[in-house]
Amino acid sequence: MPVAYFDTPNPDTPLVVVLMDAIGIREELRAVARSINAQGYRVALPSLYYREGHFEDLDFSTPEGHQRVMRLYGGLSHQMVLSDMRALLTNLALDQPVGLLGYCMGGANALVLAGALPGHIKAASAIHPGGIVTDAPDSPHRSVVSAEGELYIAIADQDPYATAEQAATLEAALKEAGVSHVMECYSGAAHGFSFESLPSYNAEARARYWQATLDLFERSLL
């Protein structure tokens, strides 16, 4: 699994793992990783489509590119990502606390991982996550109830991949399990609001989630 790794002079620095959205690794995500690294964290950015070949910098703007992205997305399961994360943490986590920042499918993966690896994951930020409630046994709303770290979840109010009903189901599961979390509805925002390359980009929403995520990491990791 290819992993872009951004180190710090201090090997005891907490680790943040950035979990890609369906579009995959590209300069926007590398910029996110560099920005978090500049805040003093070690950062890992795994390229999760490696099973299908080392796909990075995919062109999502063309019909062919869109079709390829959706094929790759459909072939990546939560269990695959969990296996990848275990390998990554074995090599990079050491004894330091770990935070997650995931977008879209990465947001759903962040919730699943927080529940599956509660001893490692001390903070997880899920930004416009998709597929938060499904019929699968490992649906994020089921998996996340075992989380012990703090969660931040940003739901766009114009998001067909995370409806108000699904958000309510997730919120109820978190409350019933007593998981420490903040879930916020971003009024006027659509799925993918965090990325400038997408038509749904919303600068105000981006600034809001970014500060909330940094605050989460400062509370939970440092």
Structure description:
The protein is α/β, with parallel strands linked by helices. The protein has a single domain, classed as Alpha/Beta hydrolase fold, catalytic domain (Rossmann fold), CATH 3.40.50.1820. 39% of the residues lie in helices and 21% in strands. Strands 1-3-2-4-5-6-7 form a seven-stranded mixed β-sheet, with helices on both faces. Strand 2 (15-19), helix 1 (27-38) and strand 3 (42-46) form a beta-alpha-beta unit. The model has no long low-confidence stretch (mean pLDDT 96).
Q: What structural category characterises the helix and strand content?
A: alpha/beta
Helix amount, in percent?
25-40%
> How would a textbook summarize the main sheet?
7 strands, mixed
What CATH architecture label applies? 3-Layer(aba) Sandwich
Total beta strands: 7
- What's the helix count? 7
Q: How many structural domains?
A: 1
Cα distance, first to last residue? 28 Å
Please state the CA-atom Rg, rounded to the nearest Å. 16 Å
